[in-house]
Design goal:
The chain has 178 residues and is an alpha+beta fold. The chain has helices at 17-27, 55-59, 80-89, 116-134, 161-164; strands at residues 8-14, 36-44, 66-73, 98-99, 102-103, 109-113, 144-147, 152-153. It has five helices and eight strands; from the N terminus they run βαβαβαβββαββα. The strands form two sheets. Strands 7-6-1-3-2-8 form a six-stranded mixed β-sheet, with helices on one face. Strand 4 and strand 5 form a beta hairpin. Helix 3 (80-89) runs parallel beside helix 4 (116-134).
Length: 178
């Protein structure tokens, strides 16, 4: 664990939260001690008065919340910069408010940072990924870097949805891009 012996939190939005959670858990399975301790899908980043949102309300766009994944991780096993780089690998961060056929502000690309250190790491990794993977194609990362705010877990049926429903919908953008 970190110097205080505590896990850390990373929060990412990269389209439909089912696929984002699924691919993180596929590559960092908690049972294999690869650094992710647990995940939750939920809503964050919206209007201050949009408290305790539910899936249907978030899908209207009225709340401005993003579908996101909250990852509790052990920084002695996996570093925050590795998770940020992986986040960029698993979606298209150059499309605003869209991943594949999923369109709307709830599907935006965002990193919700939990400390000034996370912000600095996210900025650095974003610049590195932009130069290496997107500048050569003439495309620009549009991922938002915003402070983590209040979090609401999504309804239980959304948690680990693709583990419970292996043939369920998965956005084709949620794959390793490099």
């Amino acid at each position: 664990m970190s110097s205080g012996g505590q896990p850390e939190i990373a929060t990412f939005a990269a389209g439909c939260f089912w696929g984002v959670e699924h691919i993180f858990l596929k590559h960092f399975p908690p049972a294999e001690n690869k650094g992710i301790l647990k995940t939750a899908v939920g809503y964050t980043g919206g209007k201050d008065d949009a408290k305790n949102p539910d899936y249907r309300t978030v899908c209207t766009g009225a709340t401005d919340h993003a579908e996101a994944v909250r990852i509790e991780f052990d920084p002695s096993i996996v570093k925050y910069d590795e998770l940020v780089e992986f986040f960029y690998r698993i979606h298209d961060p150059t499309t605003k408010n869209q991943q594949g056929n999923d369109v709307g502000t709830q599907y935006r690309s965002a990193i919700f940072y939990h400390s000034p250190e996370q912000l600095e790491i996210a900025k650095r990794v974003t610049e590195e990924v932009q130069k290496k993977h997107f500048d050569p194609h003439g495309t620009k990362i549009v991922t938002e870097l915003v402070p983590a705010g209040e979090w609401w877990d999504a309804e239980e049926y959304h948690q680990k949805y693709l583990h419970k429903n292996p043939t369920g919908y998965q956005c084709p953008n949620h794959r390793l891009h490099w």
